[in-house]
Amino acid sequence: MEIKSDYDKDTFRAIYAAKIDDDIYVLHTFKKKSKRGIKTPKEDIEIIRQRLKRAQEIAKFKEDK
């Protein structure tokens, strides 16, 4: 899920996994810098993927406890 907020002529985004078990993990937040297009930069997408994988590992560890 993505939350987008405009503030003082800038756009900010928070991307998070809404729910893994009973927890919510904020995976990445950033200021949208692109003046053209609406695509999220590849670097940010890779960060989100890595953090989602880590959040899933944490959730599995908590489940196994």
Short description:
The protein has 65 residues and is α+β, with helices and mostly antiparallel strands. It is built from one helix and three strands, in the order E-E-E-H. It has a three-stranded antiparallel sheet.
How large is the share of residues in beta strands?
35-45%
Largest sheet: 3 strands, antiparallel
Number of helices: 1
The helix content is 25-40%
Tell me the distance between the termini: 28 Å
Radius of gyration: 14 Å
Broad structural category: alpha+beta
Question: Mean of the pLDDT scores?
Answer: 80
The strands making up the biggest β-sheet line up spatially as 1-2-3
Give the arrangement of secondary structure elements:
Layout: E1 2-7, E2 10-20, E3 23-32, H1 42-64
Antiparallel strand pairs: 1-2, 2-3
What can you see in these coordinates?
By secondary structure, the protein is α+β, with helices and mostly antiparallel strands. It is 35% helix and 42% strand. It is built from one helix and three strands; from the N terminus they run βββα. A three-stranded antiparallel β-sheet has the order 1-2-3. Strand 1 (2-7) and strand 2 (10-20) form a beta hairpin. 2% of the residues are buried.
